Amino acid sequence: MFFTCFLAGVSCPCDGEERLRWEKIFIMMEDSHMMQKIFLQTSEELKMEMSLLQNLIKKLFMDISTSCLSVVEETCRSMNTQQNLEVDRNTSRLKRRRERMKEMKNVNEMRERNKIRKREKSDKGGRWTKLRFWS
């Protein structure tokens, strides 16, 4: 591109060196303008790529969280089932032990009654056993 000093048919009083200097300045301005356009275009492309990357990361996070959530839910269900089985086993054990304790209590009560009857029979008056000298 050549710089010409013609304004409405009037020639410019520029000498050769000054004209070259102005041409260089205009060329530098054009280069600067082109560089600015390139930077703006690159910046826009980078923004778009960053937005795309952000969306991909969000999707990945949602997929991972969904899959992790399902695994955690399944694990919790399994643990709950195991705990319920253990509670059922312990409840049945407790019921059996209570029944045995009742049976043992009944047996002990019967033994005590038999002891008391035997004492009453051996003590004809029954007054010593009532006073609890022989227990």
TrEMBL record:
Superkingdom of origin: Eukaryota
This protein is called Uncharacterized protein
Q: Which organism is it from?
A: Bagarius yarrelli
- UniProt lineage: Eukaryota, Metazoa, Chordata, Craniata, Vertebrata
